[in-house]
Write a structure and sequence with these properties.
Helix content is about 40%, strand content about 20%. It is of the alpha/beta class. The chain folds into 4 domains: about 5-45 and about 155-320, Rossmann fold; about 50-140, Rossmann fold, CATH 3.40.50; about 325-400, 2-Layer Sandwich (Alpha-Beta Plaits), CATH 3.30.70; about 415-500, 3-Layer(aba) Sandwich (Biosynthetic Threonine Deaminase, domain 3), CATH 3.40.1020.10. Strands 1-2-10-7-8-9 form a 6-stranded mixed sheet, with helices on both faces.
């Protein structure tokens, strides 16, 4: 890029379609964390995402001939809406290739803006391959979601607005990272004017392409990408964003699904806005950062990148939010199987609210119960479990046990002694007919002895399967799983399985 990024951002053409979003002071979070917390509200753009900035800036610089032919892009949703809106404003035609896992709300939004949608592939990479093929064969301009200097400059206007809106020193700016275009633009601008301000990139633990690339000193392609935060589900960061991140990004942080859900709740409580998982990434990291810097008075900014979320995903978010903030303890307890034992157990819980209690008689001497209890923090959980242990009621903390949280809590009802049973947890792309496709992929050689599937409205379906596999056939079974190709985890030794489900 011949011009400096500072100059390119100052000259970016974004305000034909974008608005200068507010820098919202999060009063509840600020009081809780002891810092001044500011939220950059890109969820309040016309398409509920920052992506229209970069798309319009890049497309507005195309030649008249290129605009007459039209543009094509690949996107899981937010970039697609940005390109579609820019095409409408620039009176050109847009074709958007979207993977089959794209939430329907985003597909409908793109169609409503007048673009042509092509559904292709199970991932962004598949969609991009198809989009580039269309660009070559039809001589259309390809609008990259993040690896383009003009797109990066357009996103960088967010950094320009943050510094204009907050004249006081800023300790750190937290930015969600997918392909890297957003953090590249913001970092290039902020570091040019306030080099003392930290730029912190945030990724999900299962979609950390930038963190791994910066650590390795080269771009790393992930073999598998988590889809919960679909807006940042990218297997490899862009060339130019990576170059800029190496120069300007101070730190990368990874956050879990539960932490993201908790951050979505925090944003709602402060703004009454429901943001998408990728939109809450920065808040999740900011909270952890602030908790480790208690006593330091500073201003911290989190970029809320978008709010395009399917409504039915909210049940999963609500279920996991308290766990993410460690305000719910989930554990197994062993109590005597005799009259009055449940009442005695509840007395030990005290005035805490019991959120869940699952139990079925299994053993004449003792009972294993699955319990959820409201707590204030992790320390209270540890004190509660210790007090139960001292009372002669052994406990097992399941708050970080993914199988127990996703499946076990819905299956507690008495153990079954099934010969040769192994237990596996699977994830597969969620779409109409996906569950049947998954069942078809399982070989009929072995009997299914347990099956649990619950649609969370997410991009990936999650199932727990018990299968009877004799020990002499385990190698063949593992080879079969490799051919299926779905992400899977062996849960046969999971303590929650042994307590509540297995023999």
């Amino acid at each position: 890029m011949a011009r400096s990024y500072l100059e390119a951002i100052l000259e970016a053409r974004v305000y034909d379609v974008a608005v200068e979003t507010r820098l919202h002071e999060a009063a509840l979070l600020s009081e809780r964390l002891g810092k001044r917390i500011l939220l950059k509200r890109e969820d309040s753009q016309q398409i509920f995402s920052f992506k229209l900035r970069g798309a319009y800036n890049m497309m507005s610089r195309l030649s008249p001939g290129a605009l007459r032919r039209g543009v094509v892009a690949a996107s899981a949703g937010n970039h697609a809406q940005g390109v579609a809106l820019a095409a409408h404003r620039l009176s050109t035609e847009a074709t958007i290739v979207m993977p089959v896992t794209t939430p329907q709300i985003k597909v409908d939004a793109v169609c409503a803006l007048g673009a042509t949608v092509v559904i292709e592939g199970a991932s962004y990479d598949d969609a991009e391959m198809k989009a580039r093929h269309i660009a070559r064969t039809r001589k259309l301009s390809f609008v990259h979601a993040y690896d383009d200097p003009d797109v990066i400059a357009g996103q960088g206007t967010i950094g320009m607005e943050i510094l204009r809106q907050c004249q006081h020193p800023i300790g750190a700016v937290f930015v969600p990272v997918g392909g890297g275009g957003l953090i590249a633009g913001i970092a290039a601008y902020v570091k040019a004017l306030r080099p003392e301000t930290l730029i912190v990139g945030v990724e999900p633990t299962d979609a950390n392409a930038m963190q791994r690339s910066l650590h390795a000193g080269r771009r790393i392609r992930l073999a598998q990408v988590g889809q919960f935060a679909d807006g940042v589900a990218v297997g490899q960061v862009g060339v130019e964003p990576f170059r800029l991140a190496r120069r300007f990004v101070d730190e990368m942080m990874l956050v879990s699904t539960d932490e993201i859900c908790a951050a979505m709740k925090d944003v709602f409580e402060d703004t009454r806005a429901i943001v998408e998982p990728s939109g809450a990434l920065a808040v999740a990291a900011l909270k952890r950062y602030a908790e480790h810097r208690q006593g330091v008075s500073e201003t911290l900014v989190a970029v809320i990148s978008g709010a395009n979320i399917n409504f039915d995903r909210l049940r999963f978010v609500a279920e996991r939010a308290e766990l993410g903030d460690q305000r719910e303890a989930v554990f197994a307890a062993t109590i005597p199987e005799r009259p009055g034992s449940f009442k005695a157990f509840c007395r030990l819980i005290g005035r805490r609210n019991i959120t869940e209690f699952n139990y079925r008689v299994d053993d004449p001497a003792e009972a294993h119960v699955f319990v959820g209890v409201e707590v204030h923090d992790r320390l209270e959980t540890e004190r509660l479990l210790a007090s139960l242990d001292r009372a002669g009621l052994p406990t097992l903390d399941l708050s970080d046990n993914e199988m127990a949280k996703l499946h076990g809590r819905h299956l507690v009802g008495g153990r079954a002694r099934v010969k040769d049973e192994v237990l596996y947890r699977f994830e597969f792309p969620e779409r109409p007919g996906a569950l049947m496709d998954f069942l078809d992929s399982l070989a009929e050689t072995w009997n299914i002895s347990l099956f649990h599937y619950r649609n969370h409205g997410a991009d990936y379906g999650r199932v727990l399967v018990g299968i009877q596999v004799p020990s002499t056939e385990r190698r063949a079974f593992r080879s079969s799983l490799a051919r299926i190709g779905y992400a899977n985890w062996d849960e046969s030794r999971n303590p929650a399985y042994r307590l509540f489900l297995g023999g």
